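Consider this today:
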Amino acid sequence: MQILRVAWAFAGAAVCCFIIFLIHSHLMKEGQLAAGTCEIVTLDRDSSQPRRTIARQTARCACKRGQIAGTTRARPACVDARIVRTRQWCEMMPCLDDEGCDLLVNKSGWTCTQPGGRVKTTTVS
């Protein structure tokens, strides 16, 4: 009789674990991002102009409340929405660690200046 009770307890635990697994897999469908993360969807580069490469990227983000898609250390990231509203782009640390950040005059984007003098300009559309 004791063995039967133990068997029923294990069977109940197995069914419970299976139900939890089904609920979890239903909530976290394939391709769904975790809150606060981003992924690059498309990346297009155009090098047709001499000494200039134009790159356009599209990112998909699942940001938390009060956050919006932005850029941190040259990668898509969720940043404070206030940064985007006030167009203070350098506050989201968009450049790499060894680069300097400067706002464009009309606040339509920013530049990242590398130690060697190379400049990367990013505009927000």
About this structure: The beta strands are 37-46, 54-62, 67-72, 75-80, 100-103, 109-113, 119-123. The CA atoms of residues 19 and 87 lie 47 Å apart. Residues 13-18 have pLDDT under 50 and may be disordered.
